[in-house]
Amino acid sequence: MEAARFRNIESVDCGGSRVLDDHLQLLTKWPELAGLTLSDTRISNGGLRSLANCPKLKGLSLVNTQIDDDGLEILSHMKGLVWLHLGQTQVTDTGLPLLGRLQHLEYLWVGNTRVTYQALSRLEAQCPNLNPNRPISF
Questions:
Q1: Over the stretch 15-70, which tens digit does the pLDDT of each residue have?
Q2: Alpha helices, DSSP H only, in the chain?
Q3: Residues facing 59 on adjacent strands
Q4: Which residues are bridge partners to 61 per DSSP?
Q5: What does the alpha-carbon distance between residue 134 and residue 40 come to, in Å, rounded to a whole number?
Q6: DSSP-assigned beta bridge partners for residue 36
Q7: Largest CA distance in the chain
Q8: 3-class SS at 121?
Q9: The whole model's pTM is what?
Q10: 54: CB partners within 8 A, 6+ apart
Q11: I want to staple 14 with a disulfide (CB 3.0 to 4.6 A). Which of 19, 33, 60, 68 is the partner?
């Protein structure tokens, strides 16, 4: 199936699938893509580079993936993100300030990560629209 034939797709749920970093390049052929779930996949920081070519992407779920602080650097350039779910990833307080570049970010989930309440509070000061949940565990 040729991805370009489905140019008007706005949302894709690949959660729990066998999708890999290389597969994400296909998503760039869907210019209307606004929401993407990649939870419980083998996606890593390298795969995120392809998502930078999805200009309308507003929501991204990366729960239980291999994303870490290096991935936050890549995500910080996706200026249209409004919600971001990073629970059960390897992100930490060190990388979190990079998300301060996302001025449209409203929702951020970081439960079951190494992000602390203090780091979230500092990020709230950088992102005027942010209303993050509090980490479940520290």
A1: 999 999 999 999 888 999 999 999 999 999 999 999 988 999 999 999 999 999 99
A2: 45-51, 69-75, 117-126
A3: 35, 83
A4: 37, 85
A5: 21
A6: 12, 60
A7: 47
A8: helix
A9: 0.91
A10: 27, 28, 30, 31, 33, 36, 78
A11: 19
